[in-house]
Every structure is written in C-alpha cells, then in structure tokens.
Amino acid sequence: MSVPTIPMRRTLVLEPRTGLPVWRGTALRLASILVALLAAALIVELTGHDAVRVFAMLWNGAFGSMFGFTETLVRTVPLLLCGLAVALCFRMLLWNIGAEGQFHMGAIAASDVALAYPDWPAWILLPTMALAAMVAGGLWSLGPALARAYLRTNEVITTLLLNYVAINWVLYLVYGPWKDPFGFNFPFTPEFSPNAILPSLFGRAHIGLIIALLIAVGMHIILQHTRWGYEIRVVGESATAARYSGINIVGNILLVMVVSGALAGLAGMMEVSGLIGRLQRGISPGYGYTAIIVAYLARLHPLSMIIAAFLFGGLQTGAYSIQILGVPLATAQMIQGAILFFVLMGEMLSLYRVRWVGVPAAAPDAPRVSTGVKPPA
Fold first, then answer.
1. Is residue 104 within 8 Å of residue 265, measured between CB atoms?
2. Which of 110, 117, 213, 331 is the most buried (most CB within 10 A)?
3. Helices 227-237/249-271 angle, 10° precision
C-alpha cells in the first residue's frame, strides 16, 4: 500500500541567530553603510552626474577646509542632543518622534528670555535661557507622555503631530508679534544682545559643543551605572518583568519623555543663541528627524552617537557644496534615508537568518518569527 505524497511548497521564514560573534554584527553594520553609499552613488549616476566627483565634493565641503570642519561641528551639536533625546526614549521602547517640535519650543522659550531681558549679565541670562528651553521642551513632551502612560495613546502620532504645531508657532511669532520692525519685513526677531550669545570656541563653533559632549558622557554613565539607567533598560527589555520587580513604569514613562524633551529643547536654545543670534523661520533643517537616524546608527549608545552625529553633520554641511555641481540639496537627504534603510536591514540580518523551508501546500503560512520589537509597556 503506497503512502500518499503530500504536496509541499516553500516559504521564507526568519530564524533567530544564536551565538553571533560581536565582530560579525559590527561587520554587517559597516557593510550596510557601504551598500547604502553604493546605492546612493548609483542614483547619482542615474541622474546624470559623476558620483565620484559628487562624493569628493561632499567630503571636501564637510572636512576639506577649516570652515567646512567648523560648520560640521556646529551641526553636530543639535544632532547629538536630539539624538540623545530620542535614544533615551527608544531605550524604553517609547517612540518619541517629536524632537523637532521640542527643539522649536526650546528655541521659542530661549528667545523669549533673550528678548525680554537683554540687559541681564551673560552669567545669569544664558543659564536662564537654557533652563527655559529645557522646561519648554520637557512640557511639550509631557502631554504625549501623560496620554501614553494613562490612556495608552500611541506616542508616535501625538509627538509627530505636535511638531507641526511648534513649527507653525515659530512662524506666527516671527511673522507677527516678534517680527523685527527694522528687518525689512523679513521673518525674524530682533537680534539678541551680546549677553545672550553663547561664547565662541573657534570660527562659528561655540561652547555648546563641549556641553553636548559632556551630556553624552553623562548619559552613558547614567544608563550603565545608575539605578535609573537599570530601570530604563529593564522596562525596555520586558515591561512585565519590570512590573513584577516593582519598577514604577508610569513614573519612568513620564520622566524619560520629559528629560528627552528637555534635551531637544536645549538643542533649540543652542541653535538660536550659539549660531543664529535670533529666532527666525527655518531654524532647523530637520535636526529632530535626522536625529532618529543618528540614534539608530549608533545603536542608541550615547558615546557612539558622538561619531554618528559628527558624520551626519558633515553630510549636511557637504550637501551645500555639491549644489555647485548642479546636484540638488535633496541628494543628501536621499543618502541619509538610504543609510537608515540599509542599516536597519543589516541589523535584521545580524539578528535573524533568512531561510527557505518546506511546508504542506494545504497548511497555512508558516508563523512569522518575532522581529524582537516589543510593544511599548
């Protein structure tokens, strides 16, 4: 008696990798960046430009001169602070997409203090501006934090939508009550007094760079060597385990979101006080959004984020140089997006193995393996 054959079909599944060496995971991430750059070069070639020449101009514009290097450092400051802000939330699987709005609210609060008290001495005015910016950024993130903690509202939506509110608030102020009466109808406020300008290091680089580096080191110490950092890691790994161990999840959600907003708000203060010297339209080319790529590229590690922020600062600086060749500014944004896409793909391949397996043709699709992204607590 013959045994009936069961028709089989093949399907793709993801199998978790076990025991993957650290060097192999690092190599996959570096390879992801290389593939992203190759993909970007291919797109540049398809647009009719010489990719080698474009990338050489991009590099020289960011690092080939003292001016370019200084501009890269200037852009590193907000990228690093906003990257630290979103990474702190991502550690707890809280998806704060609102760093851009919190950045703008910090700039508004700092400008309010600078314009209201221009005669205060710098040693009082600058700390007050920083404190006001951090409070404004923290309060701007408190609403989504409360909704997330008590109503389980998706913080991705609330933080993202509040970005547009904050950006348009800046537009209202610079076109309306705060517009410089002697600014020939341009959308910016009067210039800050010299007491409201951050001290310069060299070129346009200001003391905010040192402050941002110290904050990155401090966050690393907090996350790795304090009880609060331990609680953040536990909640991020397993909200259930954190709850059984007595960790206050609601309190940590509120605290982490507020601190995150405060860091992004501080970045806004440093931008208007250290670089622009007034509040104006377009104070951010998307620092809060680019910071998400910076955070993921650094794998949420505060010290690695210094390097990632510096490289992306160079990418933004060099993007202005390649316009001489007729390449649009959006090319740099395309490169940023390609890097994020391929890095995430490399991250997945470092955690999972893609395999073809045979299943009965009549059986339902093979169950998908969890990607490891847990829903927020």
1. no
2. 110
3. 110
Please name every residue paired with 123 in a beta bridge, in sequence order, or none if there are none. Answer: none
What is the spatial distance between Cα 175 and Cα 189, in angstroms, rounded to a whole number? 9
Least confident of 46-60, 69-83, 276-290: 46-60
- What domains are there in the chain, each with its CATH number? 52-326 (1.10.3470)
Q: How far apart are the C-alpha atoms of 267 and 100, rounded to whole Å? A: 10
For the chain, the 3-state helix, strand and coil shares in percent, each to the nearest 5, are 70, 5, 25
Tell me, rounded to whole angstroms, the distance of Cα 63 from its chain centroid: 22
* CB neighbour class for 169 (10 Å; exposed up to 12, middle 13-18, buried from 19): middle
Q: Are 288 and 99 in contact (CB under 8 A)?
A: yes
- For 287-296, write each residue's pLDDT tens digit: 999 999 899 8
What local confidence, expressed as pLDDT, does residue 6 receive? 63
User: What is the separation of C-alpha 324 from the centre of its chain, rounded to a whole number of angstroms?
Assistant: 28
- Measured from the Cβ of residue 164, the count of other Cβ atoms closer than 10 Å reads 12
pLDDT at 188: 92
* Residue 246 DSSP one-character state: T
- Longest distance between any two alpha carbons in the chain, whole Å: 100
The CB-side HSE value for 333 (13 A sphere, CA atoms) comes to: 7
Confidence of residue 313 (pLDDT cuts 50, 70, 90): very high
Q: How far apart are CA 270 and CA 128, in angstroms?
A: 12
Using an 8 Å Cβ cutoff, are 175 and 291 in contact? Answer: no
Structure-token pair, residue 245:
């161990």
Cβ atoms of 44 and 325 closer than 8 Å: no
3-class SS at 352? strand
Radius of gyration of the chain (CA): 24
Q: What's the pTM?
A: 0.86
Alpha helices, H only, 152-274: 155-175, 208-225, 227-237, 239-244, 249-271
Q: What is the DSSP letter of 10?
A: E
